[in-house]
Amino acid sequence: LLEAIRAHPDVRAVGPEPHFFDRNYEKGLEWYRNVMPKTLDGQITMEKTPSYFVTNEAPWRIHSMAKDTKLIVVVRNPVTRAISDYTQTLSKKPEIPNFEVLAFKNRTLGLIDASWSAIRIGIYALHLENWLQYFPLSQILFVSGERLITDPAGEMAKVQDFLGLKRIVTEKHFYFNKTKGFPCLKKPEDSSAPRCLGKSKGRTHPKIDPDVIHRLRKFYKPFNVMFYQMTGQDFQWEQEESDK
């Protein structure tokens, strides 16, 4: 999303994740300001740090800095998200136990270990509750991670509308990369190579026992329903499962 929105002339975004509101808060606002890109009047400054969403202190810290800040949260099916999270960790630490071992407190009873971060992060309703104490829903846009892959231009239209920008990033900015399995950004202004996400994205997920996936779906379902009610948006994660 950040890569795509940066193609907009009215947006300036910092590349690396600043982690200001979770890890670097004690460095102070001046530090944060210096990390951010310089913007002109009428341009929007953006940054992306996914861990803010699950950091208890982040909402009040952001609110006390700028209560009118607009927030964008990309969410995807929490089961896929957990497996993807595990795949990412596995690539850095091949010695970690397999997914099934980490996912259960008790495999025989089918008790999911919700304290494992890969699983806890996907309980979106829980984290959103924290944000809604500080920000109205009208200041938060939820973007479907699935639709960002299947219809990037459609999701980017919503993002641009939400940010009050002209719809400049459209279908002509994207092409689908079959090897990666998701869209890449063309560079319409110059002839340099298209921008695809790095090696860490689009990795093949390990094979997970279908029973484990079934139990995870059951675990997440009530939280997903709660999340749909809170946001007024149905992300259709349950339908997606029954299509398979």
TrEMBL record:
Disulfide bonds join 184-196. Keywords: Disulfide bond, Glycoprotein, Golgi apparatus, Membrane, Signal-anchor, Transferase, Transmembrane, Transmembrane helix. SUPFAM superfamilies: P-loop containing nucleoside triphosphate hydrolases. One of its GO terms (cellular component) is Golgi membrane. 3'-phosphoadenylyl sulfate binds at residues 76, 84, 201-205. It is found in: Endomembrane system; Golgi apparatus membrane. PANTHER family: HEPARAN SULFATE GLUCOSAMINE 3-O-SULFOTRANSFERASE 4, HEPARAN SULFATE SULFOTRANSFERASE. Belongs to the sulfotransferase 1 family. This is Sulfotransferase. It comes from Burhinus bistriatus.
